[in-house]
Design goal:
globular, 7 strands, about 250 residues
Length: about 250
């Protein structure tokens, strides 16, 4: 029988999202208030616009909002690590700060989560990508290459909407761009991955922080890295035993 998740920490990594962050915070408040206990951690990854200033002003109005600042831009994975490390609740929800993920989908993902299964991961599967055509083509090509090499069978590994346990994330070896390979890493640890259909909205303002070339370059490089990691990882049975012995209630 699955345990019902009663509290979550929503982690939002942001970089120059001054035009999107307030609307996202308002949506989270609208969709989550009176439905679940939650906190929101905005990790500003060295923004050069007014993102941090805007969020700081809202803290007075949101009792469960936290702002964490990076002195410079470290990247999305490091921002996630910062937010997750500082989260006070056991269960983590990650969401992009550009407004393309719909907060309405969070509760649906939570319903699918099995807290009794170590390294359980629920990830969004975007029904219709609302991105530029070139980015969609690049993503599909990257997905085909990834699926051939890794065979993780996850339909949409790039969706930022994810639910997992804080201790699970902090147990696995951290590396840059880990957010792109979390399904593969969790399955390597003997976990289970569930995909849930979610919405994907057009970016109304701001620009993507990665070019297709950058995504392809780091993606290929990281593929070899995670393959090496799996070969150097002990069996999933042993990992689960170690995990269970160090995470007793």
């Amino acid at each position: 029988m699955k345990n019902i998740i009663k509290s979550i920490s929503v982690v939002i990594p942001v970089f120059n999202e001054e035009s999107n962050i307030i609307e996202l915070l308002e949506e989270l408040k609208l969709k989550l208030n009176n439905k679940i206990k939650y906190e929101v951690l905005v990790v500003d990854d060295g923004s050069t616009d007014k993102t941090a200033e805007i969020v700081r002003k809202k803290i007075k109005l949101y009792h469960n909002l936290k702002l964490i600042l990076h002195e410079r831009n470290y990247g999305q994975s490091t921002s996630l690590l910062t937010g997750i490390t500082n989260a006070k609740h056991d269960y983590i929800v990650t969401i992009d700060g550009d407004g393309q993920n719909d907060p309405s989908d969070i509760l649906n993902l939570l319903k699918k989560y099995d807290s009794n299964t170590p390294f359980f991961l629920v990830i969004g599967d975007r029904k219709k990508r609302n991105d530029k055509f070139s980015r969609i083509i690049a993503s599909r090509l990257a997905f085909l290459i990834r699926n051939i090499i890794l065979k993780d069978k996850v339909p949409d590994t790039g969706c930022a909407l994810k639910v997992f346990k804080k201790s699970d994330f902090l147990f696995v070896p951290f590396f840059n761009h880990i957010h792109r390979f979390l399904p593969f890493i969790f399955s390597t640890m003997g976990g289970k991955i569930i995909s849930v259909k979610v919405s994907h909205r057009e970016r109304t303002s701001g620009v993507s922080k990665y070019s297709n070339y950058q995504r392809a370059l780091v993606g290929i490089y990281d593929l070899f890295g995670v393959i090496w990691l799996r070969k150097r990882t002990h069996s999933s049975i042993l990992i689960r035993k170690i995990y269970s012995s160090t995470h007793k209630n």
